[in-house]
Amino acid sequence: LAITFDPHPKMILHPNIRPFYLITTRSEKLAALEKCGVDATVIITFDQHYSRTTAEAFVQDFLWGRLAISKIIIGHDYTFGQARQGNDAFLKAKGRKLGFSVEVIPAFKIDDEIVSSTLIRNTILAGDVRSAARFMGRYYNVAGLVVSGAGRGAGLGYPTANIEPEKELLPPPGIYAAFVTVDGHRHMGALNIGAKPTFEDYSSTFEVFVLDYAGDLRGKKINVLFVEKLRDIVKFDGPESLKRQIAADVEKTKKILTKE
Predict the structure, then answer these.
(1) 143-197 pLDDT, tens per residue?
(2) Could you give the residue range(s) of every CATH 3.40.50.620 domain in the chain?
(3) Contact assessment for residue 22 and residue 8, using Cβ atoms and an 8 Å cutoff
């Protein structure tokens, strides 16, 4: 049994923080927990009222009173309850009194660096999606619905799927090699995040050219898995120069993804 809060407590406690960068959506989190073998997940609705729950009440009334836990597993830096009153020492003390055990998962390190959500988030925001994948144990992904675009990619011979991303946490502008999942099948993709300065279009877009897909993607929900950043956004002297660069980007994408 897993316990999680929704929405994320920080969204309630710090509502002025925008954008709020979640690494996983609620559905992704639940799917990951199920994949790990969790039989069921309790989702606690977190609001201003619940934020005032003390650590004592959370343990006594919920963990012990309602769930009757015999063991709880937490991360090394876990805190809970109003004003973060509760921690591993608090839980162990309550466990000795009530009769449940506490297991604390130690910090996980890669190259002597503690892997945390903050580290992963900052790595993604820096565009280092390769390192983010190493820290996460999987590619960072962003899903979204494909909508109609301006059609410039098709005019250059590289039709792109314009995506409305479900997450606010996106890598910085640039061109990326990515896998694209469509209807459960994985394809290769060259992804553009950002403006189109060659066409004097400085609105930000999230669009991908799916190398080995010929159908119409509009209206479909697709999932983009970031593998590696290829380059920054560049303004070219015209469509033909841009077209040559896209061809080079596509070839580089093929080489990178073929080795994955």
Answers:
(1) 999 998 877 877 888 999 999 999 999 999 999 999 999 999 999 999 999 988 8
(2) 2-109
(3) yes
- The CATH code belonging to domain 2-109 is 3.40.50.620
25: which residues sit within 8 A by CB, 6+ positions away?
A: 143, 166, 167
**Chain region(s) in the chain for CATH 2.40.30.30:** 138-258
Contact 127, 171 (CB under 8 A): yes
φ and ψ of 180, to 5 deg: -130, 120
pLDDT 10s digits, 51-85: 999 999 999 999 999 999 999 999 999 999 999 99
Asked if 224 and 180 touch (Cβ cutoff 8 Å), the reply is: yes
Q: Name every residue whose Cβ is closer than 8 Å to that of residue 70 and which is 6 or more positions away in sequence.
A: 99, 100, 101
CA separation for the pair 189, 224 (Å, rounded): 8
Prediction pTM value: 0.91
Q: Tell me the CATH number for domain 138-258.
A: 2.40.30.30
